[in-house]
Design goal:
Elements: E1 106-111, E2 114-119, E3 124-127, E4 130-133, H1 134-147, H2 152-169
Antiparallel strand pairs: 1-2, 2-3, 3-4
Helix pairs in contact: 1-2
């Protein structure tokens, strides 16, 4: 039973590999916590503060992350399959290699050699280390590609993929 974790102050806690399946962590302060490889399947993390948390390879299948602050969180290789990320702040979060299938409100994709993701309700897109709106990317991908010395064929492919993403998400 995890009732006592609602609103808990776990800032900076070392919870590596912890079994927190189904835990009720609504509004918990987990800023900077180490949750690497933790099992958070089905956990309720609504409005939790996970800013800068290490969630690398964490199991977040079906977790409720609505309104959670995941700014700067390390979610590389995390399993977010079926997680609800509506209203979550993912600014600066690293989702490379994360399983985003069936996630509510987020789309993961590869653009050439760079992993990217898009939070649909806010039109927020992060590709590589650059974060901006999808419209920004559509307007600037050629310049960004040239600045980063990509081949013309790579730049063209980025444009095709970005346009397809725009159509797919209807934003």
């Amino acid at each position: 039973e995890f009732d006592s974790l609602v609103g808990a102050d776990l800032e900076g806690a070392d919870l590596r590999g912890a079994d927190l399946r189904g835990a009720d962590l609504r509004g918990a302060d987990l800023e900077g916590a180490n949750l690497r490889e933790a099992n958070l399947e089905g956990a309720d993390l609504k409005r939790a503060d996970l800013e800068g948390a290490n969630l690398k390879r964490a199991d977040l299948r079906g977790a409720d992350l609505r309104g959670a602050d995941l700014e700067g969180a390390d979610l590389r290789e995390a399993n977010l399959r079926g997680a609800d990320l509506r209203g979550a702040d993912l600014e600066g979060a690293d989702l490379e290699g994360a399983d985003l299938r069936h996630c509510n409100n987020i789309t993961g994709f590869y653009l050439g050699k760079h992993f990217g993701y898009m939070v649909v309700d806010s039109q927020y897109v992060r590709i590589g280390c650059i974060s901006d709106t999808l419209d920004y990317w559509l307007q600037n991908y050629e310049r960004i590609g040239k600045d980063n010395r990509y081949k013309k064929t790579e730049i063209k492919m980025y444009g095709i993929q970005l346009k397809a993403l725009k159509e797919m998400t209807n934003v």
